[in-house]
Amino acid sequence: EKKEKKKKGKKKGKKGDGGGGDEEEGFKLAPSTFIPGIDEASTNYDEIWKTRDETDNFQQKYDAELIKELKRGEVESEIRVQVDDLMRQELKNLKAALQKDAGKKGGKGSAKKKGKKKDKKGGKKGKKEKDLTPDRTIESLYEELVKEGILVQYPKVKISDFMGEYSYLGTTLRQANIEPMPSLADVRRVTTEYGILPMGSQTVHETSPFIKSLLIAGPHGTGKRMLVNAICSELGANLMDLTAENICGKYPGKAGLTMLLHLVMKVGKLLQPTVVYIGNAEKTFIKKVPKNDMSDPKRLKKELPKIIKKMTAEDRIMFIGTSLTPWDGDVKGMCQVYQKIVLIPRPDYASRYLLFKEVILRMGGRLSATLDLSSLAKISDGYTPGHIVSAVKHVLTERRVQQLARKPLTAAEYGAGRWKLEGFQWK
Question: Rounded mean pLDDT of 202-214?
């Protein structure tokens, strides 16, 4: 017994030594569903087009042999189907002849019973929701949503208009074990990856990770609604506004709310892509509604999780919420509804420098040696892009733009004392 214990102890020790020498596994990316298609296209190019000489084919005429080779496969598949049908018929006739000779009946009753059971099970799984508006056209439903103010217009904004610079100190901070705050360029990139690229193509939407909802959080003036408008503009999507203040007094009662959500989802699925916007998203999950708030903000609290759960990869519909104070809402409820949360931080020095430069130029200003943008970016630490735009508007009046030829802009004109800034700030 002692010998056996010693052997076991040695084995354990060897395992421990081996485990200690292994390196810790880091973050691993999930396998991409697009790589097989890229590999197939690359192989096709190498086999057909790489070695072909097209110098004498300036007019890019068709190649008869390539067409024959492609059509040959199609003809073979069509003929194979016909031959398979004939073979099945022959096999069926042979079985019938054998059964007739043997005087047997092939268990038709049991087959029917099994077929009925399968139909019942399949019927339960494939159960569809009841259509509340079967006799109405899509034009009438669209018109109703427009008249009620649910389907709204939005200003055309490009995602590139959301200006911000990359955080060049990010790597240095990580080496010092300090996690850097994301820059505005990171916010723009993440918004593009989550909100624009998957929704822009049905194929990409079905093969890429399925993102149903997105929450954009940040203080006043950081561009939350601008990002929503940019997503809609880049996609050419319909924008449905389900903000509590917007739907207050519309479609009253439980039946009215059911009809509203039915219209939104039906029109959204038929006219894809669609963005469903919910402003002040934290109010839907607020713990205690203020007495002076008459908009019934918790009206969608129970229905939103159900709707998002029923969405499939075929539905190019995305729920996007914006929040000024996300901590006011129930964290668990918000996380059930919103899959991804994007925080827009205050801009860093590089982003503030870029914002001052671009906004001044867009508003008719001129850059000169007397305008110290570096100092402006330094003293505006803590201000949002909206505050910077307000400051530039305050200085660059129509009269001041006309005086630029003989009186260049100076940094002193943008002194912090002259900035009329309103709103909430995160510091």
Answer: 87
pLDDT band of residue 49 (cuts 50, 70, 90) is confident
Virtual CA dihedral for 183, 188, 192, 196, nearest 10 degrees?
Answer: 150
| CB neighbour list of residue 71: distance below 8 Å, 6 or more residues apart | none
User: Could you tell me what percent of the chain has a pLDDT over 70?
Assistant: 85
Are the C-beta atoms of 137 and 247 separated by less than 8 Å? no
Q: Per-residue pLDDT tens for 319-373? A: 999 999 888 888 888 888 999 999 999 898 889 999 999 999 998 888 888 888 8
10 Å CB burial of residue 414 (0-12, 13-18, 19+) is buried
Q: Tell me the torsion sign for CA atoms 138, 143, 148, 153.
A: positive
User: With a threshold of 0.85, does the pTM exceed it?
Assistant: no
pLDDT at 260 over 80: yes
Measured at the CA of 160, the angle between CA 154 and CA 163, to 5 degrees, comes to: 105
Q: Residue with structure tokens 């002193």?
A: 412
Query: Closest by alpha carbon to 320, among 215, 190, 397?
Result: 215
**Tokens 């086999």 sit on residue:** 47
Residues 6+ apart with CB under 8 A from 172: none
- Using CB atoms within 10 Å of the CB of residue 358, give its burial: 0 to 12 exposed, 13 to 18 middle, 19+ buried: middle
At residue 4 the predicted structure's pLDDT band, cuts being 50, 70 and 90, is: low
How would you list the strands of the sheet with 317-323, edge to edge?
A: 151-152, 238-241, 274-278, 317-323, 213-217, 340-343
Nearest CA-CA partner of 343 in 191, 198, 193: 191
Alpha helices (H) in 158-252, listed in sequence order: 170-175, 184-191, 197-200, 202-207, 224-235, 244-247
Which H or E run includes 420?
Answer: none
SS3 of the chain: helix, strand, coil, percent, to 5: 55, 5, 35
Task: Grade residue 9 by pLDDT with cuts at 50, 70 and 90.
Answer: low
Residue at token pair 């149903």: 212
Task: Tell me which residue of 342, 114, 107 sits closest to 223, measured CA to CA.
Answer: 342
Give me the torsion for CA of 261, 265, 266, 271, rounded to 10°. 140
pLDDT value for 201: 85
